[in-house]
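TICKET: design request
STATUS: open
ATTACHED STRUCTURE:
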């Protein structure tokens, strides 16, 4: 299919040429949007190479909280006590596959294990697992850099061609 249409599962072609614009999000709006969804992707370093894992999350006090398991790749994200954490990126979005409208947010910051046992217990209740696998703990991501954009319908009227004198 060309750029003027999208082939749907039912064999129909939907017009995908609606004028769109990309609007940058400020930090507060981006974090508010992240809190409206529960799925994201964490990007971290594993064996000196980039790794990505889909995870569920919650936002609390402007920080991202994700589950970790003893044998999972995220359990290795433990920084020495004298550093603020391990640098990670966290990405989440909500973009309609038909209209291509929605938003995307990327958070870069330091991740560290949640140390307080009561907090971990509370997060175990709030963060529903995808599979029946016991939660070993939680990881807190403190956002340093928050970037995002919204893809929205461009409501700007088209500019007509300039006409010469009649």
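STATUS: resolved
RESOLUTION: sequence designed for all positions
ATTACHED SEQUENCE:
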């Amino acid at each position: 299919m060309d750029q003027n249409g999208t082939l749907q599962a039912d064999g129909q072609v939907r017009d995908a040429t609606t004028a769109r614009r990309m609007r940058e999000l400020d930090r507060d709006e981006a974090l508010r949007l992240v809190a409206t969804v529960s799925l994201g992707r964490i990007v971290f370093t594993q064996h000196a190479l980039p790794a990505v894992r889909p995870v569920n999350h919650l936002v609390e006090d402007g920080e991202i909280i994700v589950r970790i398991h003893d044998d999972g790749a995220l359990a290795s994200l433990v920084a020495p006590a004298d550093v603020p954490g391990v640098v990670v990126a966290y990405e989440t979005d909500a973009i309609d596959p038909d209209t291509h409208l929605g938003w995307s947010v990327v958070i870069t910051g330091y991740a560290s294990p949640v140390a307080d046992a009561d907090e971990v217990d509370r997060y175990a209740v709030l963060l529903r697992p995808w599979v029946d696998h016991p939660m070993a703990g939680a990881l807190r991501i403190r956002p340093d850099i928050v970037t995002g954009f919204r893809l929205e319908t461009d409501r700007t009227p088209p500019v007509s061609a300039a006409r010469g004198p009649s």
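CLOSING REMARK: The chain has a mean pLDDT of 83. The radius of gyration is 21 Å.
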